[in-house]
Specification:
2 copies of one chain form a homodimer.
Chain A (H helix, E strand, L loop, with lengths): L5 H4 L8 H10 L1 E5 L4 E3 L7 E7 L1 E7 L5 E8 L5 H8 L6 E5 L3 E7 H10 L1 H27 L2 H13 L4 E2 L3 H8 L3 H13 L3 E4 L2 E4 L2 H9 L2
Antiparallel strand pairs in A: 1-7, 2-6, 3-7, 4-5, 4-6, 8-10, 9-10
The first copy, chain A, binds a DNA duplex (30 and 30 nucleotides) through helix 8.
DNA sequence: GCGCTTAAGTGACAATATCACTGAACCGCC
DNA sequence: GGCGGTTCAGTGATATTGTCACTTAAGCGC
């Protein structure tokens, strides 16, 4: 993908102005990851900062007994501030980022990052906004996990995963890992959804048959 | 409290150098809150940045049905970055900060904040470290709530609340609000702890009688 | 000592998690 | 096509946690 295309990617409300983008390009490298590859993790601490150019990264946390929960996703045009946090604190944590599709990232060495932050107000704002966004994302996760009902959370997640479509290609285990619960729980709730004719199921595939009702359930709490 | 004392407060690994502190003092105001007062919240969005000089702030989140959970505490010498996040994003969230003791805060207007961040590398590092620290704190909360057992979390929290002491002055409801659960749950688990002779209870007061065993339980997961 | 208020205890039940399985669908191979 | 292995999904039993509707007890002011 051509470097000139970056312009489009970082457009929008939280975008970087052209000048800053151009400076970024001068000092940054491009790196590719294949779908499923780990971008960072407890055993794989980054020494640079990542900006996602193309694709999405799924950031999740794994518990001691092997269960997962998705914290948030990094989309094209966003930065992955957890890598920054990782560099600044010595504390251990067990979050990891996995490429959810083939991705292209801009790798910015720490020194270059420091200089850009110091010299470019727009870049600084971008970074602060990214941090803030993730903090808010995590507040939402805490709220969901601590206080949310699993059927509501599942309905919400199904709609998100489906996007504009009606079909979702995912196993029960994968969805359980999204929500930080066990497969059996997801199986039972999906079975219930099926009985209520909100969805249809086949192996590894879920079809939303009554999107308005599902949305009503997702918004009901 | 004299301004000269700030020097001590902001010492330590994450401290601000004297020069930066002095600049901070030139543009900042001092404000006091009494114990129990709300420092910020959904209805009380700050237009400035807060640095805590003295006391502690408890930052918690409230669910739609009234249950609370403590996200983290801001101690003297730290900054409250959630207020920053609040200013930078329009998204609504339901976190609030309450003075846990009488507190003294340094209030830094946004413009002054921007200038300090731009001009003082040490201040910039301080702010980034604060953000990172909170992100890590929230990861821990997510992990606890999603995967932790309530007895383990309670044991851990009792030890934290006790500090070096053996006595805790707190109602079951207050502890439940720390952990994001219901009072009845805390009552039952504490009753169990009592039967196992880890603690003794009276109204509004818990005494740790077997700290090593309690710590063993807290670390057991 | 008498009410009032708040803290804590309790039983019944609902929701979610865990464990140990069974059955069903897909895949590659002969 | 049929067979065997692998992954995915279903299910019952049981444990943990959350919810509801109370009761009981402790402190406090008068």
């Amino acid at each position: 993908m051509a470097i000139g295309d970056w312009t489009e990617k970082f457009q929008g409300t939280k975008a970087l102005p052209r000048l800053v983008r151009d400076r970024l390009l001068n000092v940054a490298q491009i790196r590719h990851y294949a779908k499923g590859q780990q971008v960072f993790g407890p055993e794989n601490l980054p020494d640079s900062l990542l900006f996602l150019f193309d694709g999405t990264i799924r950031v999740s946390q794994t518990s001691d007994n092997g269960r997962d929960i998705v914290l948030y996703r990094v989309d094209a045009g966003e930065s992955c501030v957890l890598t920054t946090a990782c560099m600044l604190t010595e504390e251990a944590y067990n979050a990891e980022g996995v490429a959810e599709s083939d991705i292209t990232v801009i790798v910015l060495p720490k020194l270059a990052f420091d200089r850009l932050v110091a010299e470019e107000p727009a870049f600084r704002s971008f970074v602060f906004a990214a941090y803030s966004r993730r903090l808010i994302d995590l507040l939402r996760v805490v709220d969901d996990v601590a206080f949310g009902r699993i059927d509501v959370r599942l309905a919400d997640r199904l709609l998100t995963l489906a996007g504009g479509d009606k079909e979702i290609a995912a196993t029960h285990q994968q969805i359980a890992s999204e929500l930080g619960t066990a497969r059996e729980v997801i199986s039972r709730v999906l079975h219930d959804f099926q009985k209520r004719e909100l969805i249809a199921q086949s192996r590894g595939r879920i079809t939303i048959t009554n999107k308005p009702a599902l949305r009503g359930l997702a918004d009901s709490d």
